[in-house]
């Protein structure tokens, strides 16, 4: 990241290659749509590029990236909601599901996540899909570790209810 | 476009626009700088308008009121600097910081000032409120010029905190200048500038957001 800030093109390319899969999975599990996830991945990278000067060398990179990704997702959601409030849907296009294939007789991971409130879904995705620590999730979501633990605990309780009817 | 092609397209665009950037100064520098700017504008403005009020305050009243104003400026500065840097460590939720930064002011005022009878309460408070809002209007663009360098992580909260900070410059100026020590006058006319600034911040945020929708 530091070399990216210093305009090292190879470092920038490698950084994008390294982080994009995890970011794409984050958006896919949040949005449930491959097209939307790709759009937001692109928007996120452009935003990261525009604010790369706000990364402080020595600080953890992933929370910084996910904080920006989260901001892009929130902005995108609000913009779509405002635009949709003014649009009339004629023929809705079928959504391409960005399912991460899991061999199981139970519900898909995304289906289980879809039933969670947005804040819990976001925390669980960062913890379990992106592999961030509690502290990193707290930084990325601008909240405290205690709040993240609470949201994760409530999410686990809800998922247990889904798996054990 | 497939995922791989999207990533390639992004890489090409970023590499084509790649320039070296210097990381921003640490958040505490921005927080203290913004707070100091507000305190400085308030103090200089109040002295320029003649510090009649400051001369009437006891030492204890000065320490309490101006101390609360400085503390409030520090908390608000911390809040706006957080919005500049993604992934800052959070010890206290931001909403509580904002509420505390604003609530400390009337609390301090109520501790050291008394309610007094005032025959022309409304026009007198309106004059001071107007002065405070004028200071806020002058200070807000300076704050915005500083804060726009950041990442804009929480635009609504940042707008509220920036508005409150701008209003605080007006309140500090009035605490130096205004000789009216009636608690109700100070709350309505001086502290009112902070509340007006906060409301103006959130209103401007809503207006800007809605105007972006119309141009989409």
Outline of the structure:
The complex is a heterodimer of chains A (165) and B (216). By secondary structure, chain A is mostly helical.
Question: Could you walk me through the main structural features you see in this protein, from its secondary elements to its overall organization?
Answer:
The complex is a heterodimer of chains A (165) and B (216). By secondary structure, chain A is mainly α. Helix content of chain A is 68%, strand content 0%. Chain A is built from eight helices and no strands. In chain A, α3 (34-50) packs across α4 (61-84), α4 (61-84) packs across α7 (134-140) and α7 packs across α8. The longest helix of chain A has 24 residues, at 61-84. The relative contact order of chain A is 0.13. The model of chain A is unreliable at 97-105 (pLDDT under 50). Chain B has 216 residues and is mainly alpha-helical. Chain B has helices at 3-16, 27-48, 52-56, 59-84, 94-112, 121-147, 155-177, 183-214. Chain B is elongated and about 75 Å long. The mean pLDDT of chain B is 92. Chain B has eight helices and no strands.
Structural class of chain B: mainly alpha
Gross geometry of chain B: elongated
From the spread of the alpha carbons, the general shape of chain A counts as: globular
Largest sheet of chain A: none
- Radius of gyration of chain B over all CA atoms, rounded: 20 Å
Oligomer: heterodimer
β-strand number of chain A: 0
- The average pLDDT of chain A is 84
Beta-strand percentage range of chain B: under 5%
**Pair of chains with the largest interface and how many residues each contributes:** A-B, 45 and 42 residues
Radius of gyration of chain A from the CA trace?
17 Å
Number of helices of chain B: 8
Percent of residues in beta strands of chain A: under 5%
Mean pLDDT of chain B: 92
pLDDT < 50 stretches of chain A: 97-105
Helix content of chain A: 55-70%
Number of strands of chain B: 0
